[in-house]
Write a structure and sequence with these properties.
Mean pLDDT: 79
Number of helices: 5
Number of domains: 3
Strand content: over 45%
Oligomer: single chain
Helix content: 10-25%
Low-confidence stretches: 6-49, 122-128
Structural class: alpha+beta
Distance between the termini: 10 Å
Shape: globular
Length: about 400
């Protein structure tokens, strides 16, 4: 016969286990698909509402929730680029002038301009597209993303605002420190002189099918990006972007979306955006494998001890790997990694080759989630605990 102390201890432990399961089931969060739930959906940047804003644009003046600046609507040059109330760049200019226009779509402002008339050099096996194009994309998000893509031999010059400093940190990354810190990830070569950064973007040749062109890109991201990730992982992400391994990054908060294109010709369209289930269509001009990054607010995609993330590529479930393996992936096998990023869950997916693909990201219950979410199982456990507790009382009375 069991000793009295052992029986009482066993009954107590089982009761605590049952109460813990009940609490876990109640703490899963009740955010709805619009992003307005009972969970704290302030996002990883500490803001109290949506982390995806909207630009208002009139006559060269762009005003957003997180980002404000002036832009010349004809040549795309920028003055007074402000992120979260701090001016980062006094100006952004280009060595080769272009003529274009500004368009605004929600959280993204885009300038697209062309310089010399298009021409083709047919003396090489692959024709070289000879022209100067400039595309500028600013994103009204707390990280203040400013992405500049140049086609043709061109330099972009950033003049830092007072209080900001810059230094080259290696492997196509440049660190900005001061009132607001950040990073510029670039192709080509860079120089820093005083408060001026000059990046030569026309040093790389890109091949796409039967044509090629010279060009490059530079993207500024404030330190609020990925701030819940380890320093080592942040560095690996920036290096992967600089090396052209990352196609783009999609941020989702409720029914709001913001997409940053890190690679020419990489495009994403959200097909379905509902609670715990997101589907996106991914396209790319290049056939090389790329990594797609998705940052999803946890009010939209549950990720905790009771929920796991599953990813399918064209209907086939992918193998889950580490983030290091995904960022360094090559070959024909798709894989994905999941990282807890504060109030966001970051999903990195390696897509081994490109045409058109469909990505499905879903939150599914873990074993613990299956138990805590099933009232029949919980009832059976509680009934068993009650039986053990009654038996303990009977044994104690008999003694």
């Amino acid at each position: 016969m069991m000793k009295k102390g052992v029986i009482i201890g066993l009954a107590t432990v089982m009761l605590l286990l049952a109460s813990g399961m009940a609490m876990a089931g109640d703490m899963s969060g009740t955010g709805d698909a619009s992003g307005h739930g009972d969970m704290n959906d302030g996002g990883m940047h500490g803001h109290t509402h949506m982390d995806i804003g909207t630009f208002n644009y009139t006559n060269g003046v762009a005003t957003g929730t997180f980002v404000d600046f002036n832009i010349n609507p004809q040549n795309g040059e920028i003055t007074n680029y402000v992120v979260n109330g701090t001016t980062v760049f006094s100006s952004v200019t280009y060595s080769s002038p272009t003529v274009g226009k500004v368009t605004v779509h929600g959280s993204t402002l885009t300038y697209l301009g062309i310089g010399a008339a298009p021409d083709w050099n047919m003396s090489m096996h692959n024709p070289i597209f000879k022209s100067t194009w400039t595309m500028v994309s600013a994103h009204d998000v707390p990280s203040g993303v400013l992405h500049i893509v140049q086609y043709g031999e061109n330099n972009v010059t950033y003049t830092l605002a007072p209080g900001e400093q810059a230094k080259i940190t290696g492997n196509h990354t440049l660190e900005i420190s001061g009132t607001l810190g950040g990073t510029i990830i670039y192709t080509g070569t860079a120089q820093v002189s005083g408060n001026t950064i000059t990046i030569a973007l026309g040093t790389n040749t890109f091949d796409f099918g039967n044509y090629s062109f010279k060009g490059g890109s530079a993207v500024f991201i404030s330190d609020e990006t990925w701030q819940h990730l380890s320093e080592q992982l942040r560095e690996k992400l920036m290096n992967a972007i600089a090396q052209g391994k990352v196609g783009g990054e999609l941020k989702i908060h409720g029914n709001r979306e913001d997409f940053v294109n890190y690679t020419y010709g990489f495009n994403v369209q959200v097909q379905n955006n509902e609670k715990n289930k997101i589907q996106v269509q991914v396209q790319a001009e290049s056939h090389e494998g790329k990594v797609m990054i998705m940052d999803i607010n946890k009010s939209q995609m549950q990720y905790d001890a009771q929920h796991q993330i599953k990813v399918k590529l064209d209907g086939k479930e992918l193998k889950m790997s580490s983030e290091t393996e995904v960022l360094a992936a090559q070959g024909t096998e798709g894989k994905y990694a999941v990282v807890d990023n504060g109030n966001y869950v970051t999903v990195m997916v390696y897509i081994p080759h490109f045409s058109d693909h469909t990505l499905d990201v879903e939150s599914q219950p873990t074993v613990l989630g299956e138990i805590t979410g099933n009232p029949l199982i919980i009832g059976a456990i509680v009934a068993a605990i009650v039986i053990v507790a009654v038996a303990a009382v009977v044994v104690i009375k008999r003694r």
